[in-house]
Specification:
The protein is mostly beta strands. About 10% of the residues lie in helices and about 45% in strands. The protein folds into four domains: about 90 residues, no CATH class; about 100 residues, Phage tail protein beta-alpha-beta fold (3-Layer(bab) Sandwich), CATH 3.55.50; about 80 residues, Roll (Phage tail proteins - horseshoe like beta roll fold), CATH 2.30.300; about 70 residues, no CATH class.
C-alpha cells in the first residue's frame, strides 16, 4: 500500500490536480472511514526537508488501494528529538469536509413530499455548485444508490453547516454520503458527490453471503460491548412560529404513540421554521397542513434511540472475509461472543480504522444498533 500526495489548485470553476509524490515508507498510518460522519486520517512519518515540503496543508492524500476515500491535509506538526529522531504528524479529513466550509443559505424550504436524495442534492447544488464565490470548483453530482434515499419528506432548514446537516439526514435515512476524486480525462479531475446505502449481510437475510464475526470462528480478536438507554427520546413536542397560546405546535413520534414507561419526551424549539418561504424570488405562503408536516420533520431529527455499540479488533488476513471485498463500512453483519452468550444478529458496521505500523496492519471496527 502506498500513500499518494496530490497538489490541488483552483482555476475559476475548475481544479487542477497533480500527483507530486508517492510514499511507501512511514512509521504509522490511521485511515478512519465513518458511515455517519466525515472520516479522517493521520500519518506519522520521519521529518525530512522533502517530507515537510511534500505534506503541505491543502494537499490531497490518497491510497493506491482505495479509490473511494481521499483526504485533505489540514494540520502538520513537526516534533524534533535528539534521542528519538524528528517526526511529522500529518492529519486531515476526507473530501466530505469540503462541504463543512458552507452553510445552508438562503433557507431551503421543501413543502411537497420529496425524496431525501433530491432534497440533499438540491441543498448541495444551491450552496456549493452555483457559479459565484460559494462555488466549490469541479464539484459534481455523482451516483445515488439505495432504496433508503427514496424515502420522502418535507423540511425547512437554514444556516446549518452543510456537511453536518447532510450527515444528520444520513442518520434519519440510514444512508451515507461521500465525495470521491475521479480523473475524467487525461490530467483532468472532478469531485463527485455520491449517496449510497450499506448492504445487509447479516444472518437475517439469504440474498447475500453471511458475514459473522465470532470468537468461535477466531475472527473476533477483542470484544468491547456497551448498551446505552439513558439518552433516548421518542416523542417530540415541537413549537414553531407564534407567541403564547397562538404558537403553532405538534406532537410527533415514530409509529405508534409511546405511552407510560416507554415514553421519552423532548422539547423542540422550531421558531426557525417559517410559514412563508421564498421560491424563485417570490414569497409563498405555506398551508397549515404543510407547516405542521415541516414541524413533524424537525421533531424527528431530535429522536434518540437506544444503542448497542461493539468496538473490536478483527482478524485482518482471515480466510473467511476480507474488508472492502466481502464487506464494507455501512453493511449490516452479525457479531457474537459465545463465551458470554452475546449475539447481535443484525448490527451495522458504522466505522473502520485501518492502522499500519511496525507491527503490521490492524482493523478496528465499530458496530452499532439503534441506527
Amino acid at each position: 500500500m502506498q500513500i499518494e500526495i496530490y497538489d490541488m489548485s483552483a482555476d475559476g470553476e475548475n481544479i487542477s490536480i497533480q500527483l507530486t509524490a508517492v510514499c511507501d515508507s512511514f512509521s504509522s498510518l490511521l485511515w478512519d472511514v465513518q458511515y455517519y460522519g466525515c472520516g479522517s486520517f493521520e500519518i506519522y512519518i520521519a521529518a525530512t526537508p522533502q517530507n515537510l515540503v511534500g505534506f503541505m496543508p491543502g494537499r490531497i492524500i490518497g491510497r493506491d488501494d482505495d479509490k473511494e476515500h481521499y483526504g485533505i491535509i489540514e494540520s502538520v506538526k513537526l516534533e524534533t528529538n535528539a534521542e528519538n529522531g524528528d517526526y511529522l504528524t500529518v492529519t486531515g479529513r476526507f473530501l466530505m469536509s469540503l462541504l463543512s466550509r458552507r452553510i445552508i443559505y438562503p433557507t431551503l424550504s421543501i413543502t411537497t413530499l420529496t425524496s431525501y436524495a433530491d432534497i440533499v442534492r438540491q441543498a448541495v447544488y444551491r450552496n456549493a455548485m452555483v457559479s459565484g464565490n460559494r462555488l466549490i470548483p469541479s464539484l459534481r453530482h455523482g451516483n445515488t444508490t439505495g432504496s433508503c434515499w427514496e424515502q420522502k419528506a418535507r423540511l425547512q432548514v437554514s444556516y446549518d453547516n452543510l456537511m453536518e446537516w447532510i450527515f444528520k439526514i444520513c442518520e434519519i435515512t440510514g444512508g451515507t454520503a461521500n465525495i470521491r476524486l475521479e480523473e475524467i480525462s487525461s490530467g483532468n479531475y472532478a469531485f463527485f458527490f455520491d449517496l449510497s446505502q450499506g448492504t445487509d449481510r447479516s444472518i437475517f437475510q439469504e440474498e447475500n453471503a453471511h458475514i459473522v464475526f465470532s470468537d468461535s470462528y477466531c475472527n473476533l480478536l477483542t470484544f468491547d460491548y456497551s448498551a446505552n438507554y439513558s439518552g433516548q427520546r421518542n416523542t417530540a413536542y415541537v413549537f414553531g412560529e407564534g407567541e403564547g397560546t397562538e404558537r403553532k405546535r405538534t406532537i410527533t413520534f415514530n409509529g405508534n404513540e409511546p405511552a407510560h414507561l416507554d415514553r421519552y419526551e423532548v422539547y423542540v424549539d422550531a421558531k426557525d421554521i417559517k410559514q412563508e418561504s421564498q421560491e424563485n424570488g417570490e414569497t409563498v405562503q405555506i398551508t397549515d397542513e404543510e407547516y405542521i408536516a415541516l414541524l413533524n420533520e424537525k421533531g424527528a431529527e431530535h429522536f434518540v434511540y437506544p444503542t448497542e455499540i461493539t468496538e473490536s479488533t478483527i482478524a485482518v488476513d482471515g480466510k473467511q472475509y476480507q474488508y472492502n471485498k466481502d464487506y464494507f463500512v455501512g453493511d449490516y453483519v452479525t457479531v457474537e461472543h459465545q463465551r458470554f452468550g452475546l449475539i447481535q444478529p443484525k448490527i451495522q458496521l458504522v466505522g473502520m480504522i485501518e492502522s499500519y505500523d511496525q507491527n503490521g496492519r490492524t482493523l478496528t471496527p465499530t458496530f452499532r444498533t439503534g441506527v
